[in-house]
Please model this.
Amino acid sequence: MTKCAQTVMEELEDIVMAYGQSDEYSFVFRRKSNWFKRRASKFMTHVASQFASSYVFYWRDFFEDQPLQYPPGFDGRVIVYPNNQTLKDYLSWRQADCHINNLYNTAFWALIQQSGLTPVQAQARLQGTLAADKHEILFSEFNINYNNEPLMYRKGTVLTWQKVDEVTMKEVKLPTEMEGQKMKVSRVRSRPTALHCDIIGDAFWKEHPEILEEDS
Model:
């Protein structure tokens, strides 16, 4: 999923960041983007089609011995938020939802796989429990400290443009005796880079001021 989102960002460079968890990704376009004259239908269809085609194209890079069993499809919607704070509130809600879902699923599958409960029994056990209750179940019954679980699952994935060094083999002008040889060439390029960090607080936004343009 993250590879697909990175491909979307590389193809549609007006996207300044993306946030993903589970099977959903949100893409943030530049406030002043004039891409396709700001037609919402173009935004939605290009992002969804690029994501779906990337999913098929890169499948074997991640699941070499497992064939894709049916053509994937992704839906989408375009939302215009009136200001930066509303956008940040939306992304904060997405990350909070990631935490809630992952905490539930971690407890749910621990009850099934380690305690032998059926899905119905596990669901009944967790019904009405609060976050603290799930933490206690994981720690007291399975010796799992939820706070030590990988950040990717607890925080989701944030994609931002980062400068990275790329080393490629390239033919360059060389002395006559070395003609036809390739040499390693290093250059700095901006790439969509995956982060697993908190975006609810202010620290992330202070570290990446380039993402949000000032409210008018």
User: Anything to note?
Assistant: The chain is about 45% helix and 20% strand. The chain has a mean pLDDT of 91.
